[in-house]
Amino acid sequence: MVDPLLRVEKLVRRFGGVLATDNLSLDVLPGELHAIIGPNGAGKTTLISQLTGQLTPNSGAIHFAGRDITRLPSYRRSRLGLARSFQITSLLPDFTAADNVALAAQAHDGHSFRFWGAARREKHLREAAQAALNRVGLARRGDVPVSELSHGEQRELELAVALATRPQMLLLDEPMAGLGATESARMVALLKELRQEVTIVLVEHDMEAVFALADRITVLVYGRVIASGAPDAIKSNEEVRRAYLGEQHAVTSHG
């Protein structure tokens, strides 16, 4: 039996009187693309924020690569190989695509205190940036300011920024958000390629993309896991259909 790369045990997070994460347990295996779905307010982004260290749980434990990271700060988790892309873009709009990726590589190397320009000058950072841009299909867009990239290109650039930190696991929060049909298809194709190289946790509302990509799916409702399993088992789970999937035309029309 393969040990999980990520293990979440009985996680609880409260905001005042609201229980946003309710005794949540979850395993993610190495090499897996594990999707987390649920209606708005289900606690998906709250969970991701606890995994990356932006939020601290009230109780429970998070283990990554065999280490207890429950109280570890975000930058330490990044060094261990956890990388996140955000639901709302977190790129630097006045910098070029290559600059954004090089700065991420620089910060991961532990040199975030140095002047911004250093990332442009250092050969190994420029090469790392170009390799990441190549990987996501932006090889010819490195010199373009982020503000001039299309929304789809910005989402691809966020993946390049994450890949520049050499992650063991990517935590992707709504990578399809705001994409048109053509851009969504490009993103699905890219994620299909990346899943061969890195473990991925995917939070996503696009059910067609989820069922095209996921090895396993965990369903959250009000911060609680109501089901976890293979895509076919999730599709046929009556509790899931009542709580969530029945509202999703993409699922019912695709099997």
Average of per-residue pLDDT values: 88
Summed up, the domain count is 2
Distance between the termini: 31 Å
Assign the structural class, choosing from mainly alpha, mainly beta, alpha/beta, alpha+beta, or little secondary structure. Answer: alpha/beta
Query: How would you characterize the largest beta sheet?
Result: 6 strands, mixed
Strand percentage: 15-25%
Order of helices and strands: EEEHEEHEHHHHEHEHEEHHH
Please name the CATH topology of the largest domain.
Rossmann fold
| Strand element count | 10
Percent range of helical residues: 25-40%
Strand order across the biggest sheet? 6-7-8-3-9-10
Low-confidence stretches: 249-255
Shape: globular
CATH H-level name of the largest domain... which superfamily? P-loop containing nucleotide triphosphate hydrolases
* CATH architecture annotation name of the largest domain: 3-Layer(aba) Sandwich
How many helices?
A: 11
- Per CATH, the class of the largest domain reads Alpha Beta
Keywords summarizing the entry:
single chain, 255 residues, alpha/beta, Rossmann fold, 2 domains, six-stranded mixed beta sheet, four-stranded antiparallel beta sheet, 10 strands, disordered C terminus
Structure write-up:
With 255 residues, this protein is of the alpha/beta class. It folds into two domains: 1-81 and 170-255, Rossmann fold, CATH 3.40.50; 89-166, no CATH class. It contains eleven helices and ten strands. The chain has helices at 44-52, 74-80, 97-108, 118-121, 123-135, 151-163, 181-194, 207-213, 231-236, 238-243, 249-253, and strands at residues 6-15, 18-28, 33-37, 59-64, 67-68, 82-85, 169-173, 199-203, 216-221, 224-229. The strands form two sheets. Strands 6-7-8-3-9-10 form a six-stranded mixed sheet, with helices on both faces. The protein has a four-stranded antiparallel sheet with strand order 2-1-4-5, covered by helices on one side. α7 (181-194) links the parallel β7 (169-173) and β8 (199-203). The longest helix is centred in the last third of the chain and has 14 residues, at 181-194. The relative contact order is 0.17.
